[in-house]
UniProtKB/TrEMBL annotation:
InterPro entries: Cullin, Cullin-like_AB, Cullin_CS, Cullin_homology, Cullin_homology_sf, Cullin_N, Cullin_neddylation_domain, Cullin_repeat-like_dom_sf
Protein source organism: Myripristis murdjan (pinecone soldierfish)
Pathway: Protein modification; protein ubiquitination
Identification of the protein by name: Cullin-4A
Membrane-spanning segments: none
Length: 794
């Protein structure tokens, strides 16, 4: 830089003339510092010359210096009296010298003069107010040169060159112009930093260079069109997978940006072309490719365009460019993408593509709400098929749990734990699971029973706890929780009474989950069942002591469970013919119990009784764990060899359907302790049975009483009917409660109030029937003038 070489000596005439601005400068300094030994000799001589002669306008102060060390001397510096004059023709000669230097720079030839000398020449001219003329002359020289450059783009040989050659020529011209402007500015830096800086309306030498290049080269319609067309062609080639010179594109687009024509000349056309390209590509690829492949293509395209911005496009283009790609490849095809591929992605659990789908849709306006709606619809449809297909009832609950797990994983891992998607999933589950009333609740209760029953070796305690937690999530979606309660209570009763519960801890854990979910009222009867079992154990300890004191102890060991009728499911009483020894033992217990609890009534329930029989086969002694009905049948074979179905029914008094199931379990199951003649799976009226003396089994104690745990069709129907009966009572109670409080109420308000109070789904028609029933029973009456109005009857 010429400035670095500037000599600022005081005896320079131009330099001296610059001190005209100061009026008076007073300098104080320590005498001992002024006389310091490290000052150069020539500078001291210079200083003394200045203080002794007045020609340079420096006068000695009249103050007398103190002879003491540390006293200060006062110097006063004044303006020059006479302004030094420039030599004749100095301005013209200097300009010619400067013009030659500029010409040499523009023609890339060597400069005859020293750069420092040229810089000094500019400084001298500026000091003598030649700046305006110098600025105009410099601008004219630069303009003439730039105007001459346009011809290389218009003449014959260059019009026929390839696009790439033209772009390289354009870039070379621009680079040369920038380099020349920088060198010219370094010579005229003093002009740039004084005159131009003080005149805000004048562009700097660099800005002048840009303005001239823009006006005479880039704004030429032919040159600009060829340049922009060429850049767009190169970008299109790159988008089609070809390699292009990115540094060339970066330089040319930088040129357009520096010349402030980037937006108008290039960006608008670039975005139009991009829009056209991706609109066509989106339409074509949506037909040709499947959704996962298309999504990866879109992600790749977005990555490419971002890289293009980083490499050579202006940063301001990024937002409109990416918006354009997202709109044409995603925004225009959102519904088509989801209709074509969302179900497949979810069915096949394509988590990578689902995460990509969410990520891409989150960038497009309206993308996530659209995805949310399709996600909700998919869950309703898929879940509806699980719940609404009776043939799949056996696997319904397991399928629901698996489906919920799968959807949870998608929401957590692919949809970024978005609350809207999680809530939509819950809403969808609640909708489809209640489309088929009562059945899901019943099957969930049976599923829990299968997991809590002894013999379930699938899960450890921790796994069982996890399964129960998942079950509770599905349970929350169910509206008819009373159906679940009825079936759960029936199954729990069997597990407790037949001794088939896998773990008391697991049972109580499930109970606490239900209590937490539905409140204490929901589980009060279930808790009562556990209390009865605990009390029964205490009673049996006392009964054992009581029987030991009897004069005639029995060979049979009796265990009785005393059940409070309100807590347990209601069982149909069944009279069977028990052996005399059993009847005698029952009477002993009855005497013992009523002696302790007078006023209570005992009713025996043989359906849930079970026994252990000691049996002798050819192979040896075995113990059979059987139901009470199986016991009665097997004991008959102590009295005879062979019996018909009718003979067994008469002897035992067991109801026909129950007897057939019992005989089937003994003669047609895995452990066949009876032989059936003729053989077959079903028990017919003419069949005869005899004891299988050749029975073999690897175990000593053999369980044959699983039949008790199996639910019969009659049991299932009666449980469902009991739920409906209980619901009617609840509706009646709610209507009376509301009417008693409100006294008078319209039909619509009463129905609305009932929906708020009832915890199970109910149809308006059913409510109307219950209201009519209560009117018939005089709990309420219609208004005589307004039939839609009801009055409470006290």
């Amino acid at each position: 830089d010429a400035v670095a070489h500037n000599n600022r000596r005081l005896n320079n005439p131009a330099k001296r003339s610059r001190i005209t601005q100061s009026t008076e400068l007073t300098v104080s300094c320590q005498a001992n510092l002024m006389m310091a030994g490290d000052m150069r000799q020539d500078k001291r001589a210079n200083f003394s010359a200045l203080t002794e002669h007045n020609t340079n306008g420096v006068a000695r102060s009249s103050a007398v210096a103190s002879s003491k060390t540390g006293a200060s001397k006062k110097l006063v510096i004044k303006n020059f009296k006479d302004r030094p004059k420039l030599a004749e023709n100095y301005t013209e000669d200097t300009w010619l010298k400067l013009r030659d230097a500029v010409g040499a720079i523009q023609n890339s030839t060597s400069i005859k003069y020293n750069l420092e000398e040229l810089y000094q020449a500019v400084e001298n001219l500026c000091s003598y107010k030649v700046s305006p003329t110098l600025y105009k002359q410099l601008r004219q020289v630069c303009e003439d040169h730039v105007q001459a450059q346009i011809h290389q783009f218009r003449e014959y040989p260059f019009l026929c060159e390839t696009v790439l050659s033209f772009l390289k020529r354009m870039n070379r011209c621009w680079q040369d112009h920038c380099r020349q402007t920088i060198m010219i500015r370094s010579i005229f830096l003093f002009l740039d930093r004084t005159y131009v800086l003080q005149n805000s309306l004048l562009p700097s030498i660099w800005d002048t260079g840009l303005e001239l290049f823009r006006t005479h080269i880039v704004n030429d319609s032919g040159v600009q069109k060829r340049t922009v067309d060429g850049i767009l062609e190169q970008i299109e080639l790159e988008r089609n997978g070809e390699t292009v010179d990115r540094s060339l594109l970066r330089s040319l687009l930088g040129m357009l940006s520096d010349l402030q024509v980037y937006k108008d000349s290039f960006e608008e056309r670039f975005l139009v072309e991009t829009n056209r390209l991706y609109a066509a590509e989106g339409q074509r690829l949506m037909q040709e490719r499947d959704v996962p492949e298309y999504l990866h293509h879109v992600a790749h395209r977005l990555e490419e365009e971002n890289d293009r911005v980083m490499s050579y496009l202006d940063q301001s283009t990024q937002k409109p460019l990416i918006n354009c790609v997202e709109k044409q490849l995603l925004g225009e095809h959102m519904t088509a993408i989801l209709q074509k591929g969302l179900s497949t992605l979810l069915d096949e659990n394509r988590v990578t593509e689902l995460a990509l789908l969410y990520q891409l849709f989150s960038k497009v306006k309206g993308g996530l709400p659209t995805l949310l709606q399709f996600w909700r619809d998919y869950i309703k449809t898929f879940g509806g098929e699980i719940v609404g297909t009776p043939e799949k009832d056996k696997d319904m609950v397991q399928d629901l749990l698996d489906f919920k797990d799968k959807m949870d994983n998608v929401a957590q891992g692919c949809f970024a734990r978005n609350e809207s998607f999680i809530n939509a999933m819950k809403e969808a589950f609640e909708t489809f699971i209640n489309k088929r009333p009562n059945k899901p609740a019943e099957l969930i209760a049976k599923y829990v029973d299968s997991k809590l029953r002894a013999g379930n070796k699938e899960a450890t305690e921790e796994e069982l706890e996890r399964i129960l937690d998942k079950i509770m999530i599905i349970f929350r979606f169910i509206h008819g929780k009373d159906v679940f309660e009825a079936f759960y209570k029936k199954d729990l009763a069997k597990r407790l009474l037949v001794g088939k519960s896998a773990s008391v801890d697991a049972e109580k854990s499930m109970l606490s989950k239900l209590k937490h979910e539905c409140g204490a009222a929901f589980t009060s009867k279930l808790e009562g069942m556990f209390k009865d079992m605990e009390l029964s154990k205490d009673i049996m300890i006392q009964f054992k002591q009581y029987t030991q004191n009897q004069s005639e102890p029995s060979n049979i060991e009796l265990t009785v469970n005393i059940l409070t009728m309100g807590y347990w499911p209601s069982y149909t009483p069944m009279e069977v013919h028990l052996p005399a020894e059993m009847v005698k033992l029952q009477e002993v217990f009855k005497l013992f119990y009523l002696g302790k609890h007078s006023g209570r009534k005992l009713q025996w329930q043989p359906t849930l009784g079970h026994a252990v029989l000691k049996t002798e086969f050819k192979e040896g002694k075995k113990e059979l764990q059987v139901s009470l009905f199986q016991t009665l049948v097997l004991l008959m074979f102590n009295e005879g060899e062979e019996f018909s179905v009718e003979e067994i029914r008469t002897a035992t008094g067991i109801e026909e359907g129950e007897l057939r199931r019992t005989l089937q379990s003994l003669a047609c199951g895995k452990a066949r302790v009876l032989n059936k003649n003729p053989r077959g799976k079903d028990v017919e009226d003419g069949d005869r049975f005899n004891f299988n003396n050749d029975f073999k089994h690897k175990l000593f104690r053999i369980k044959i009483n699983q039949i008790q745990m199996k639910e019969t069709v009659e049991e299932q129907v009666s449980t469902t009917e009991r739920v409906f009966q209980d619901r009617q009572y609840q509706i009646d109670a709610a209507v009376v409660r509301i009417m008693k409080m409100r006294k008078t109420l319209s039909h619509n308000l009463l129905v609305s109030e009932l929906y708020n109070q009832l915890k199970f789904p109910v149809k308006p028609g059913d409510l109307k029937k219950r209201i009519e029933s209560l009117i018939d029973r005089d709990y309420m009456e219609r208004d005589k003038e307004t039939p839609n109005q009801y009055h409470y009857v006290a």
